[in-house]
Amino acid sequence: MSLVFHAASGSPYVWRVWLALEHRRVPYELKMLSFDRGDLKAPEFTALNPRGRVPTIMHDGFALYESAAIVEYIDEIDAPGPRLFPTDPRGRAVVRRMVREADQYFAEALEAVAAQLLFTPQAQWSESAIAHASTALSDELARWEQTIAGEYLAGALSAADFTLYPELALVLRIAKRKEGLNLDTALGPRIAAWRDCMQALDVVQRTWPPHWRK
To answer: How many CA atoms lie within 13 A of 175 on its CB side?
Structure first.
């Protein structure tokens, strides 16, 4: 098996694929690209992914991009580690639904916060846009607080956890850029316990975004 994983540090979409590869114990070669160097615009990379985005994998001559699709592919190939989705149709559908919810609703609010606090000069921050995104994130966290099924989101550790956790970790990190924006207080007790459980996992520590360690 020859799988090359094209990644960049800090992207929650990259991180979920990295978690999936480690969880399933798929052998891979990591190629860490740089946004700043323009690596994602290089012709050799856009030949694999014409959208010029990470994550992207190349597996025995087969190129695939879009993180949710990659995670499902990793789940279906032969690998020794635990599966990322339940094998029964209903359980699998629930995890797929949670993945979609995280990407559609939570990530939308995350990206609104990132647009302000990461990609806009501080002097131009929109207080109303930040407040709106913060409210949306708090509402989403309250919804997840009610739907978590146990120690992990869907019962057993799954693709749902590997989708939401990187998004949550990133937004909590970003929020620290703005004084008074403490999203940790929006975590209910069950989601807070889940966050702590996820952060303690070996697979999470092994894949922690490299530039976050500095």
So the answer is: 21
